Amino acid sequence: xxxxxxxxxxxxxxxxxxxxxxxxxxxxxxxxxxxxxxxxxxxxxxxxxxxxxxxxxxxxxxxxxxxxxxxxxxxxxxxxxxxxxxxxxxxxxxxxxxxxxxxxxxxxxxxxxxxxxxxxxxxxxxxxxxxxxxxxxxxxxxxxxxxxxxxxxxxxxxxxxxxxxxxxxxxxxxxxxxxxxxxxxxxxxxxxxxxxxxxxxxxxxxxxxxxxxxxxxxxxxxxxxxxxxxxxxxxxxxxxxxxxxxxxxxxxxxxxxxxxxxxxxxxxxxxxxxxxxxxxxxxxxxxxxxxxxxxxxxxxxxxxxxxxxxxxxxxxxxxxxxxxxxxxxxxxxxxxxxxxxxxxxxxxxxxxxxxxxxxxxxxxxxxx
Length: 368
Fold this sequence. Notes:
Elements (H helix, E strand, L loop, with lengths): L5 H13 L10 E3 L5 E5 L2 E3 L6 E7 L2 E6 L4 E7 L5 E7 L10 E2 L4 E3 L4 E7 L4 E8 L2 E9 L10 E5 L2 E4 L11 E5 L4 E5 L13 H7 L2 E5 L5 E6 L4 E6 L4 E6 L2 H4 L4 H5 L9 E9 L3 E10 L10 E7 L4 E7 L5 E5 L4 E6 L4 E6 L17
Parallel strand pairs: 1-20, 2-24
Antiparallel strand pairs: 3-27, 4-5, 5-6, 6-7, 8-10, 9-10, 10-11, 11-12, 13-14, 14-15, 15-16, 17-18, 18-19, 19-20, 21-22, 22-23, 23-24, 25-26, 26-27
């Protein structure tokens, strides 16, 4: 692997310090005024024999349950009858073993198999895994320079471009990183909310403040990013430029004095968690809204909401849930949402048949 140009990285770091988030046109901002219905959802517990779940995802007719385990990493279930299909992924350092796999919703369906992209974080590789019946095979692997710390959400654009956000150990905090694994070259975008006192923060605090969840529309044309610490969702084009933003209340959606408004002598305990999970289909964006301060996060369970937007960031539904979910997956085939109540170790199913969930699943017999 080619060495990183450290002078270039220092220049990029200086660019971040001097960077000012460009002002969008007024029409590029929308307020979160719910024009659709507020719906109360009641969940039904399912898969009560599954323990240690930490993430849920759905692709096609399969529910993918990620486990907190040093052995099996995923369990696969059929969404048609919630029957167990197979385990997926074994923890370890061998060539066919994974360390910290993350699935971000990108997959293809061939005539005989599924192809899913997995970010194997601790091994610094992005792998394409073929699932054919009970057979599992890695058919493509991209090595990622560990200096980039691309250990969050990651997506495949083509053989020359992987797009993702970065983890805590990145040398500088960019909005998106475009990485060419063949040439080991990088390009960044810097459209982060501007806050006037960001220079007072440590690298870990910067990572915490700007932590976001990223999803891509299946055709690769758009990205959506939801911040945990800002009441804000951004839509970006395929080049990573913010083209529209949804703002909650003015103070926490976009406030230059954000940190000084909330920081206390005891730290940042008055900062809030807003959007803590994100999913997207070709038609809708689903964002888990917590609205809870650090002081009570993970300590005091509370009802949550799933905010549903179209791709113009118009709010369509506010799904109110009386369970303390940490993540969820959308099942378009059966018009339901699967939610994970981690602290009560429950997976729940919620009916959303009142929504029009029809969309087109990409169907490829080959991938570049």
